[in-house]
Protein 1
Amino acid sequence: MTKKSPLHEVHTGLGALFTDFAGWSMPVRYASELAEHKAVREAAGLFDLSHMAEIELTGPEAARALDHALVGKLSAVSVGRARYSMLCAESGGVLDDLVVYRLAEEKYLVVANAGNAAVVAEALRERASGYDTEVTDRSAEVALIAVQGPNSPAIVGAVCDADLTALKYYASVPTTVAGHEVLLARTGYTGEDGFELYVDAAVAPEIWGVLAEAGQPHGLVPAGLACRDTLRLEAGMPLYGNELSTELTPFEAGLGRVVKFDKEEDFVGKAALARRRDAGAEQVLVGLTGTGRRAPRHGYSVLDGETVVGEITSGALSPTLGYPIAMAYVPPALSDPGAKLSVDIRGRVEPVEVVALPFYQR
């Protein structure tokens, strides 16, 4: 059965077009995905991310449990800060990429992708079983609302009393919005400044309304999953199922930095990841730019001359830059910026050039 966000009726009232995403009925766009994309780059967008999973770890050994379960050193994260990390299999393959918030000395919040929610919850429970910690899936109780874009500090600042000037990127603070307790995080997936609000699912419609009203003078518009995808692609951010999978380790994705071999706790996948680090990846993730209006799409072949050398993982006509952009896995020998390759776009070969990621920086 398809799940519905606590904000489903709100989206219906706004005329949203829905799509099935990881078993959830979520708004893909409201009016125009290009207009929504532009609003986030120039003003602000309001997103419903309630399909994401929230899993809490509490107890004296929560930090050690996460150091064992994930590739990062979560014990080194200060209270009030967050870190991007990954859950890997024994083989080193990525089961999910995550954001982990340290809410207190003995309390963490792990935020997982909707499609991997059950896998992550089960893996965390299993890997934490030998530690003095409790793993609780809070996903059904929590709604997640994001305000992203250059005007987001003015909008969020108008509805809460948190000191936003002191709230750094990848940090969080408890605050109140409309009298309701909220975890406010300065995180996001768009390449812009922005905030994510973890709220009680029952009050999500009220908080959405308060934010929408506060955002009116600042050009805030509701924004769907379609523009979220083009925004994250421009920012060079990986999407699980496209750039990340169980077939790939963090090293192929250029994210080897998130793997911390120097921590005291042994962690799942350590041996396989050390082998991959030492051997070097056979395929690496690169950015590609093209000309014209025909965009490479997921699954299209990347060519060096007439030889297939890789595959597009994500691609689109960039609304901000005005030309085709894509990410793809190619051999390391073809990964230097400036390398000339091509893509088979439905039988027509189009030239592309390797570029450094991200495509866009604010």
Note: The mean pLDDT is 98.
Protein 2
Amino acid sequence: MGFSKNNVLHGNHFHKDWQRRVKTWFDQPGRKLRRRNARKAKAAALGVRPLTLLRPAVRGQTVRYNTKTREGRGFTLAELKEAGISRKAALGLGIVVDHRRRNLSVEGKAINVERLKAYKGRLVVFPRKAGKPKKGDSSADDLKAPTTRQTLPFPSSVPEQPRKITQEEREFNAYKTLRNNRAEARYEGARKIRAAKASFTPLYCAFRKEEEEAAKKK
């Protein structure tokens, strides 16, 4: 540390008594036991319900992880509609719904729809009142069948096998196709109006010509 001119000498204090500020973790075994007991108590309070909620299978983000599948936040409204489950009913059956998520591939949507149908087929819905079953509740035989609280197994991620690129795929221009589709969707309304006006133009001209001839005769 250099000094310059007739300034006051620095009185830096570097002894900060760091031993009193060290964060310890001696309660780790006790916290682990408390969390385990809390999970047991929560599972017992759930009764016969599944231990975990049903979530969709989605692809990971970025090029590094997009070959792997993971649990998503919730099923889309389109997936629930195709599986025949309403949004309100899904919330009561342990199915998580995410209204913001969108389906970007047919394959991913089909996997989640099959997952919903398999879950719905295995599900046993007990009536709120034992003697008064309602629509959607399971039959008496299903209620007597042995049950399990384990949810559906998660589908394994099988990457696509390598193959040769076809000539059609080489000639396909994805960027140009997307731009054309976007332009068609954008100008669809204006083109319909223009086509309608063009179809009515001859009749309009003929009608105006008849009006002009009638006015001349007067």
Note: The chain has two domains: 40-155, 174-217.
Protein 3
Amino acid sequence: MDLSRAAAAALDDADPLAAFRARFTGVDDGLYLDGNSLGRLPVETPAAVARVVKQEWGRGLVGSWSSWVEQARRIGDLLADGVLGARPGEVLVSDTTSVDLYKLLVAGADARPGRDVLVCCADDFPTDRYIVAGVAASRGMTVREVDAHIDTGLDLDVLAAALDERVAVVVLSQVAYRSGALVDIAEVTALARDSGALVLWDLSHAAGAVPAELTTAGADLAVGCTYKYLNGGPGAPAFLYVRSELQEQLRQPIWGWFGARDQFAMGPSYDPADGVDRFGVGTPPVLAMAAVEVGARITAEAGIERLAAKGRALTELVVALADAWLTGYGVTVASPREAPRRGSHVSLAHPQAWQLTQALVDRGVVPDFRTPDRLRLGPAPLYTRFVDVWDAMDRLRTVLAEGAHTSYPTERARVT
């Protein structure tokens, strides 16, 4: 593999997604490799939000609810078709990822009466594990946390050993938040189905960068955020997915009026709506939804397969440069090396990863840090160039060669 900057520039020249970079703000202000935490602002988003503020709210006032009330399903269908590989009427934009996870976990557990075990991954994102623990505690259930390698992810044989007739729901992430390790949705779904359990997927570190193909995989349930690779903005509302065949069997625990069959009848008792609408709760955040719709449309236009292909190529470059330049400084690749087993981010392990992160930020590179000693690099296929990756890795090499990171305090010193 040619590791010259000229070779990286040639990849940019041949990139079929290159034109999308101009549709985001601030792309020339430093090297941003944290798109897996918060995506960039699309150029179209301020005007889209302003239109809702000035025209729909400012002039239409309450009359604009005739269009706002359809937002959750409209954007959901856009995500279903253009990003998630799902069918119309299976995705709803609603609440936060945490709330959606809670709703679907409780609904799934209720749909498996007599089963008293919830399964999750010991190395999964903390909120997911906390919610599983909280639901189990409130229902008198048991949690089985399956071990996963911090770098290479979940072993399906280990998962299979944890599945039996007591398991109601399995909660897993498609892409591990720390290492980027990718799990095969179809394989896990088949394993769980053999034991009679449902699987609830967290797609937060995958949606917009990795194909989910939920229908093809036969997936049961999923949730995910919209502010990472989908570029919906900080705190943007999340999405949930429920397979059509399951929707009438499930009743979620938060009985809000946006999940009711005839919400404006203001009836005396809760009667869940048909289809995916029953998983709504309260009044949606209309302004934030406008921003989500812009990001979702750009992602769908780019095409998830093209985004995934570029994401694999970008992360392959990170791995190759780390091997060539950084090994002698004690840096190791802490993600799966095989591109098909990786999402769109790579973690590098180093005892002073926190200090390296701060040194890079001061030199115009934005990565992020994950415990215990991981420097995480998340190139976003929509706007990150190959030369951006090359330049960021070159600056990291320089920091290490000069020992510049050693002048920074440890994370513990920073906190105290």
Note: The chain has two domains: 5-32+303-415, 46-302.
Protein 4
Amino acid sequence: MQRILEGIRVLDLTRVLAGPTATQILADLGAEVIKIERPGTGDDTRRWGPPWLRDDAGRPIEAAYYLAANRGKRSVTLDIAKPEGQALARELAAKCDVVAENFKVGDLKRYGLDYASLAAVNPRIVYCSITGFGQTGPYADRPGYDFIVQGMGGLMSITGERDDLPGGGPQKVGVAVSDLFTGLYSANAIVAALFHRERTGTGQHIDMALLDVQVAMLGNMNTSYLASGEIPGRLGNAHQSIVPYQVFKSADDYLIVAVGNDSQFARFCEVLGERALAADPRYATNPERVKHRDALVPMLASKLATRPAAEWLERLEAADVPCGPIRNLEQVFADPHVIARGLEIRVPHAKAGEVRLVANPMRFSATPVAYDSPPPTLGEHTDQVLAELLGLDAPAIESLRKRAIV
């Protein structure tokens, strides 16, 4: 079965998370992704463990961090700091449809691997640069780190418990969301640019920045500020504009109640045995509930604390009140719905036997995602790619290896 991006070849000069996430999405969609790595060390995340993928003898093979964003790629070791390595990279780029890179602004120009240099020999190239702050602006030369961008881009100003409560203060998200969202946006941008190329015959340069993405991904929060001029603050697990829409502590565990409209609130109150709350003018409508949240929420919390979470969840679900448990990852992957959706995949691995990974969430009726290969070992495909694409024979490749170019 043909895959959506079959026939598209990507030269992947990215490492760590944002760039590799983008190129892994392209690989999942059928693109041939050639991952260029430093000889001897490779992508930094190969060593960002524990935890590790281990072989049958228990020896570490790769860090789990690396495994998260590199399946379906071909690894080629190439030292682009050396002139001969740069020349080989340019030859590879000339045979590719896409180049993705996340070097500091201007770094690749000195290697002749910047957009202008490659577009001069391949005008159809789609070239995606991923940096912390973009190719322009006063911060362009700064290195970009997800944690810092979460702070600078406003996310941490709305994440964390209220300052006036125990544990209050700014809090980063538990996963590198600026990196991951940048990877998602970048993959979308690359596919859009490929579509444009099909119509016009020309490629283009894509300028992706973590800070841009972080500001954009705040959704209704950033638009709320622009509309009102009011700076939103941290509300912990509560919602800025909807009440009750937060975490509550039951008699034995935490649960989420996500009441989205007034009729749901009335049913919620009925389950709690507190019908009078739904009729109270202070709580009957969402704007009033938001206004009086400090009085309402403690009453709801007190009632929910009287019974176990499982009992509340059963009763709330039966009343069609949006709710849910808070699970750890062991519970997530044991969930029957997660299993039914096939969110855990197992891919054969030459050294580990197999590797457990998370499926791509995109579901296509005609061109399903295929998981053809695991994250590659360092330099696993160097000889194969150089022979196939550049016509180098075994002695030529061995000469490059002896000089530490590959």
Note: The radius of gyration is 25 Å.
